[in-house]
């Protein structure tokens, strides 16, 4: 299916934006076209939550077709065995809604990126101590930029925090001012039933807003 679309290309330094596209509910049948549109727009990190249909098949297709151009992997990873399953199909990104230190330690051991969900300073420090690559502030809409700013004041300076939930193109600037290093974007970029063109347009709008927020 991907052959009917213009092939995604890198835009030099414009890639590597700190945005993870969360494709909850995506199917293997559509994953390649969706990924191609998202990468072409300028987003090169893609997460397939494990509660999507046949997620490992989708991740395998992503790893095979886009692994040289994007960081791909799984979300809603809750168990160590799931980390192994994702690694087994070529995924290199492990994102969780919670802070499970066993999952974090195992992910780091395999050399994969670990982004556990945290909400409190206690969870944040436990995740970092276990070897997390960065922190997923979730749900972001409950903490708000004010909550992030308060937690950021006590975190190590080099720790990375992505806001997920309640963060999007309408408020990137507010979150960045509070100390967000990046974002996980779900329904603002993809919902079940969307066309590839819908996703392309949403991804492009998100990239424009992100770049403007950092201008």
From TrEMBL:
Pathway as given in its UniProt record:
Carbohydrate acid metabolism
Question: What does the record list as coiled-coil region(s)?
Answer: none
The record's section on Pfam families has: Aldolase
The record's keywords, sorted A to Z, are: Carbohydrate metabolism, Lyase
- How is this protein organized at the quaternary level? Homotrimer.
Similarity comment? Belongs to the KHG/KDPG aldolase family.
Record-linked NCBIfam families: PRK09140.1
Q: What is this protein called?
A: 2-keto-3-deoxy-phosphogalactonate aldolase
């Amino acid at each position: 299916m991907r052959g009917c679309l213009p092939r995604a290309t890198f835009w030099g330094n414009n890639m590597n934006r700190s945005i993870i596209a969360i494709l909850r509910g995506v199917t293997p049948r559509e994953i390649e076209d969706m990924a191609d549109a998202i990468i072409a727009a300028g987003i090169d990190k893609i997460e397939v939550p494990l509660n999507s249909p046949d997620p490992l098949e989708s991740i395998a297709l992503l790893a095979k077709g886009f692994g040289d151009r994007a960081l791909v992997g799984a979300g809603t990873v809750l168990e160590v065995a799931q980390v192994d399953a994702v690694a087994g199909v070529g995924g290199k990104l492990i994102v969780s809604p919670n802070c499970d230190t066993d999952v974090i330690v195992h992910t780091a051991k395999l050399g994969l990126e670990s982004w556990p969900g945290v909400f409190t300073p206690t969870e944040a420090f436990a995740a970092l101590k276990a070897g997390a690559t960065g922190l997923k502030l979730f749900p972001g809409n409950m903490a708000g930029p004010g909550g992030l700013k308060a937690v950021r004041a006590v975190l190590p300076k080099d720790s990375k925090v992505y806001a997920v939930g309640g963060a999007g193109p309408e408020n990137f600037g507010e979150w960045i001012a509070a100390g967000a290093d990046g974002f996980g974007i779900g329904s603002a970029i993809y919902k079940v039933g969307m066309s590839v063109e819908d996703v392309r347009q949403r991804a492009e709008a998100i990239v424009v807003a992100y770049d403007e927020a950092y201008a």
